[in-house]
Amino acid sequence: MLKYISKICLLVPAIFLLGSCWELDQEVLDGVTPDDVKNSNNPQLIDVLKASAYSRIVGSWGGHNSIWSINEVASDEMAIPQKGPDWEDGGIWLRVHRHTWGTSEDAFNNSWNYCFTAVGEINNLIISFPDVELLVAELKVLRALPYLWLLDSFGNVPIITEESTGGNPTNNSRQEVFDFIEKSILDNIALLPKEDTRTTLNYYSAQAMLAKLYLNAEVYTGTPRWADAEAAANEVISGPYSLSSNFFANFATRNSGSTENILTLPYDENNAAGFNLAMMTLHYLNQNTFDLSAQPWNGYASLEEFYNNFDDEDVRKQSFLEGPQFSSDGKRLEDLSAEAGDPDGNPLTFTPKINMLAPNAFRQAGVRVGKFEFAPGAGQELSNDYPLFRLGEIILTKAEAAFRQGKTGEALDALNQVRKRAGLDPLTTITADAIFAERGFEMFAEASRRTDMIRFGKFSQPWWEKGSSEAFRNLFPIPLQQINANPNLVQNPGY
Hints:
By secondary structure, this protein is mainly α. Among the domains are: about 190-265 and about 385-460, Tetratricopeptide repeat domain (Serine Threonine Protein Phosphatase 5, Tetratricopeptide repeat); about 270-385, no CATH class. It is built from 18 helices and 10 strands. The strands form 5 sheets. A two-stranded antiparallel ribbon has the order 1-2. It has a two-stranded antiparallel sheet with strand order 3-5. Strands 4-10 form a two-stranded antiparallel sheet. Helix 7 (about 175-185) packs antiparallel against helix 8, helix 8 (about 205-215) packs antiparallel against helix 10 (about 225-235) and helix 8 packs across helix 14 (about 390-405).
């Protein structure tokens, strides 16, 4: 029988982690028996059974102190300037930006726990419903997603599956984790739908995962896989997606109709919290700009050099909030607590120059992250669907992979597709630096910059207040909290 409900809480055996709740508005199956579940491919049933796994993936990705945070602040895109005691936070964000982090940073531990919580929930579901073929196939590909983040961030992490026994797991090598991700996808991708699903996996989002995996294969394993990256990108490009004519439509509050977004995290301020970028980046007084129900924290700002790299004609430069700030009724905002030395004085003005990273950055220094729409009247949490994979990135993946193989014509054609949408003239020649720059313009604030910098050999180089850093910092440390809890874990080299 069918019953209309709005909230489902899946109860699964606590083999790894307890189950979770996922807010939905859909028809679900009521009174399901074991015989109904066994060998069932009923799409309604599968949607219900997989819901808690996806809720874990949505999780805290887009929040402060998250995996998004450590990837952004460790790059040359973004910093959190310390303003006296404000944003001191024990110095963690200074250390992350300067590449002087230690092994016990809470943000690393939070990111580790976020990924393995998702892995645990997925394993629970596979154990509980092993006979639902389509469900198990999708879950195994979904499990590869947090493992891709773990591979990229921490490298040598334990592989935990539904077949793992109890006890404290040991590290697997980075090559083993790479192989596990690849096999998980390749063994199950044929069972995924080809419909445009957006908030759940399909054939094309799985190919996007492969494209990202292969693009970074040389970093992860020492062996390049450029042809495989291009092939996976081409599969996605052949799918039901197209570049949105309006770049910012991909990041709007109501962006579910984007023609470009392939896989998104469906945040909702009421039912799926975890994306609070407005709080993280806006000045306190910007509460009046957007009539927000909570006061922002005045933190994340873009670096001047990164901002200045954008061409003034590039529509993507509007990804930043820069210049004079106003209330929703058009009145100039005045920061009466602005520092005496701030050349802009009291009128709230975001300027590219940040006077210092610490200890006394000006309250209004630095352009802010405006790529995602801040809906008027929003609370601490945003309702924008966060794009994990979108066509713009995939086209740039094709461009880079083709270029690395010497196929400059194909690379140029792909790169210029993205530039045309941005309102820029086409390039007639192509270099590795041009591709790197284009990825920066296109992918700002989408947590890809650190990975790109590592792949292009730029992550250890100095910028602004960061000096040259050691190559071992291309990986974050295995969190000390995890090593203390599990003596079988071995720390990454250099730490």
